[in-house]
Amino acid sequence: MNTDTRKMILVTVLCGLGYMMYSVDRMTVSSAVELIAHDFNLDKGQTGILLSSFFFGFILFLFISGIIADKLSGKPVLILGLLMFSFATLLTGAAGSVTSLIFYRVLTGIGEGVFWPAASLEVANVTSERQRTTVMSLYWMGYPIGGFLGTWMGAMLGPIFGWRVVFFVAGGLGIVVAILYAVLVKNDRKPADLLAKQQVAKVPVRMLFSHLPIILMAVYYFALLAGWWIVLLWAPSYLMHVKNLSIGVAGTIASLLGLTGALGGFLLGRYCDKGDFARRRKILMGITIASGILMSAMVLNLSTPLVIVLVMLLGFLGYPITPLVLSFTAELVPPSLRGSAIGFVMNAGMAAGGISPIVAGYFAQSYTLQPVWLVAGIVIIFSSLILLGVKKLPITAANSTEIAPADAGYLMKH
After folding, report:
1. Which residues, in sequence order, are CB contacts of 300 under 8 Å at separation 6+?
2. Could you tell me which CATH number the domain at 3-186+198-413 has?
C-alpha cells in the first residue's frame, strides 16, 4: 500500500468519524425531541424552532468555511470546526433553560458549518475523479451511521438515562477525533514557487455565482432538502402521532433510515463511479424521484411492517443523495474552487433546514403532519427536474490574468 492510499484511507476514516459525531448530535435532538419538549414545556411551534435552531448557525458558515479552506488548508479549518461543535454538543447536554439550549444549538451549527466543507474538501483532494464518488460515499457513511446511533440512543436510552447523556458522549468522542486528525494527518508540502503561482493565479470565487451548473446544483439541493429535512427531523414524531407508535418503537424504526442509508451510499457510490457524468446524473435524478414517492407513500394507512419497509427503502435511496451531490459539485469546478463550491451548494441546502422544520411544526400544530409530509414528498420529486440543466461546463476566467496550473489542467480536460 503506497503513501497516497494510506493517507486517503486515514483521511476518509477520520473525516467519517467526525461526520458521525455531528450526525449523532443532530439526530439525537430529533429522536429525543419529545423528551426535551416535555422538560422545557415546549409546544409544537416552539419544538420546530428548536429543531431548526442548529441551522441558524450552520448556514452562516458553510460557504465562508469552504472559501477559507481553499485559501489555507482543509486540515486546520476541519479541526477548528470539529472542536467547536464537540464542545457545543457537551454544553447542549448541560443546558438549563430554553434560551441556553437554543444558544448552544446555534453554536453547534456554527462548528458543524465550519467542519463540513473542510472535511469534504480534504476527502476530495485525496481522491481521483474515477474513485471520488465511492470514497466520498465511504466518508459520508459516518453520517447515516451516526444518524442511526443518534436516533436510536435518543429514543431508547433517553427515556431510561435522560436525553442529556447522549450529548455528553457525542461531544467527548468528537474531541478525541479532532486530536487524532491533528496528530495523524500530515499536510502535503508544496514547492514555494508553486504556492506563489497558485496564490496569484486562482480562478476568482465570484465566478461561482455566474457558473450555471453550480447555481442549479444549489437550487436543486435547496428544493430537495426542503422536503428531506422534514423526514430527518420529524420522522420519530410523525411515527408516534400519525402511526400511533411508542417513542421507543418510533425511534427504532426511524433509525433504520441511517442503517440502510449507509449501505445504499456505498453501493450507489460504487455504481456511479463505473459510468460517466451523464450516467451519474441519471442515477441522482432516479433516486431523488424514488425518495419523493416513498416519502409520499408514508401518508397511506399502512401496517407497521410496511412502514418499516418504506423507511428502509427511503433510507437506502434517499441518504446517498448527499455524497453524490458532494462528488458532483467537486467535479463541476477547478480544484482551487472545490471547497468554495461545496460550501456554496451545501449552504443552499442547509438554508432549507432553517425553514422547513419550523413550517412543518406550525402546520402540525394547526392541522396534522400528514399534509405537510405529502407536500414535502412532492417537492422532492419535482426537485429532480432541476438536474436536467446540470452539465459539465468550463469556468471562464476572463476577469483573471492567469489560470493556476491545476485549474488549467481542469479547463483543458473539460
Report:
1. none
2. 1.20.1250.20
Q: Judge whether 356 and 76 are in contact, CB under 8 Å.
A: no
pLDDT of residue 236: 66
Mapped onto helix, strand or coil, the DSSP state of residue 2 is coil
* Segment (H or E) for 385: none
**Positive or negative torsion for Cα 307, 308, 313, 314:** positive
Distance separating alpha carbons of residues 92 and 97, to the nearest angstrom: 10
Size of the chain, expressed as the number of residues it contains: 414
User: What is the reported pLDDT for 80?
Assistant: 92
Q: Which three cell numbers stand for residue 362?
A: 406550525
By the 10 Å C-beta count (0-12 exposed, 13-18 middle, 19+ buried), 99 is classed as exposed
Q: What is the pTM of this model?
A: 0.71
CA angle centred on 166, ends 135 and 113, rounded to 5° = 50
Closest CA to 296 of 371, 238, 360: 371
Name the stretches of the chain with pLDDT < 50: 189-201, 397-412
How far apart, in whole angstroms, are the C-alpha atoms of residue 413 and residue 395? 12
Helix (H) or strand (E) holding 263: helix 247-272
